[in-house]
């Protein structure tokens, strides 16, 4: 009986049920997730991400940053924005295989300032799974789009600084099409020497291990800018430091400044947040001018098409 029921299930690749403008999508798809003790539809890892991929070429976005830099807060805000906005750049989110992973990040984003809730679980932990999927559909183009987001814990990147063997096991960074580097802007003016040292070691290790993608699009995100702009002295200090910081990352990634996308963002507040909205739209929209698109997509598919050992 179970086998018959499985045979009747629609595959995620069958999107004939999606009609232009129809937001009530139910494809009856149940991903085959191994029994790893994780929540159903939670974030995934390099191995079980293969269980939920379809025939759409995925786009891999990797978030890089240390603990409490706002990576998971951004993911939670992105998820909420897509759910409530309805349509972004012509695309609608109709499904995800990692709803629980998104919901947890959105919850943690919402309670971070609640003084009654003090727990280590207010951010992504190192043992947490980190790959999240978004399935989008453009009714006008009749086109599907799948985005995979790698949201590793800040502790993981902290250990990459000291243990290169851990970097060698990372299967996502080297295959990324987009790399978003998160900075905690509140720490830059007073603690830049410490931040610079950590990032220098991190990117040095990534380059040494051959994990820094050459064909990816890079963005440097000065997060929590809203907290800096509230203080005129901190704001002036940041303006004075900003170009030096941009030049540093350009040298680490070996990019010229004109090819490095630098933005100031507030990843927590969604409403009336033009900076956040602009970033989301640029991540979602169809990238018609991207160079080496087929080569990068092939690299992504080569990875997600095989189980990691």
Walk me through the structure:
β5 (178-184), α6 and β6 form a beta-alpha-beta unit. Strands 2-3-4-1-5-6-7 form a seven-stranded mixed sheet, sandwiched between helices. Residues 1-40, 114-123 and 289-298 have low confidence and may be disordered. Helix content is 39%, strand content 15%. The protein has a single domain (38-304), classed as Rossmann fold (3-Layer(aba) Sandwich), CATH 3.40.50. It has 309 residues and is of the alpha/beta class.
Helix content: 25-40%
Average pLDDT works out at 76
Largest sheet: 7 strands, mixed
Shape: globular
List keywords for this structure.
about 300 residues; alpha/beta; Rossmann fold; seven-stranded mixed β-sheet; about 40% helix; disordered N terminus
List the helices and strands and how they pair.
Blueprint: H1 2-8, E1 58-64, H2 71-85, E2 92-95, H3 99-111, E3 131-138, E4 143-150, H4 154-162, H5 164-168, E5 178-184, H6 188-208, E6 217-223, H7 225-229, H8 232-253, E7 261-264, H9 274-284, H10 293-304
Helix pairs in contact: 2-3, 4-6, 6-8
């Amino acid at each position: 009986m179970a086998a018959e029921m499985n045979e009747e299930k629609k595959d995620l690749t069958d999107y004939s049920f999606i009609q232009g403008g129809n937001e009530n999508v139910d494809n009856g798809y149940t991903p085959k997730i191994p029994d790893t003790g994780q929540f159903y539809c939670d974030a995934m890892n390099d191995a079980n991400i293969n269980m939920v991929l379809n025939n759409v070429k995925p786009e891999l976005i990797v978030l890089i940053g240390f603990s409490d830099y706002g990576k998971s807060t951004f993911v939670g805000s992105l998820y909420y924005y897509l759910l409530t906005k309805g349509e972004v750049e012509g695309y609608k989110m109709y499904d995800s295989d990692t709803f629980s992973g998104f919901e947890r990040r959105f919850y943690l984003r919402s309670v971070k300032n609640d003084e009654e809730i003090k727990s280590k679980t207010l951010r992504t932990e190192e043992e947490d799974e980190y790959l999240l999927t978004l399935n989008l559909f453009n009714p006008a183009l009749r086109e599907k789009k799948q985005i995979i987001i790698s949201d590793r814990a800040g502790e993981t990147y902290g250990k990459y600084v000291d243990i290169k063997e851990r970097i060698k096991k990372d299967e996502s960074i080297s295959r990324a099409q987009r790399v978003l580097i998160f900075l905690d802007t509140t720490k830059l003016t007073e603690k830049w020497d410490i931040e610079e040292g950590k990032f220098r070691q991190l990117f040095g290790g990534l380059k040494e291990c051959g994990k820094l993608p050459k064909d990816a699009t890079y963005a440097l995100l000065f997060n929590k800018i809203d907290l800096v702009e509230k203080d005129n002295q901190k704001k002036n200090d940041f303006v004075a430091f900003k170009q030096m910081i941009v030049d540093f990352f350009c040298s680490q990634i070996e990019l010229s400044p004109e090819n490095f996308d630098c933005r100031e963002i507030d990843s927590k507040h969604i409403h009336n947040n033009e900076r956040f909205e602009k970033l989301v739209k640029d991540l979602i929209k169809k990238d018609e001018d991207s160079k080496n698109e087929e080569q990068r997509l092939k690299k992504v598919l080569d990875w997600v098409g095989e189980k990691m050992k």
